[in-house]
Amino acid sequence: MTGQAQCYCRLGDNKKAIELGSHAADILRAKKGEYNSDYAESLCNLALYYYLYGDYKKADYCAAKALQIQKKIMVTIIQSVLIRYTH
Questions:
Q1: pTM given for the model
Q2: What are the distances in angstroms from CA 11 to CA 16, 49, 75, 80?
Q3: In which domain, by residue range, is 17 found?
């Protein structure tokens, strides 16, 4: 579904891209959880669609949420590496 959203975005139909991108993000969140890099990537895509559509507030929200998720993922990875190499 993400691929379809990207195609609609390239065609300039950002409203349809938002619809499909939102649905894809919802599915990824339900299947993989909120703190997952695939879900964060889908939010980045959704931020782009909102931006191109002119809804900057929603674009900013999606981008900020994606960044928050990626930061949490990176902290978790760094902590596990530090634990492994300090013991």
A1: 0.85
A2: 10, 12, 37, 43
A3: 2-86
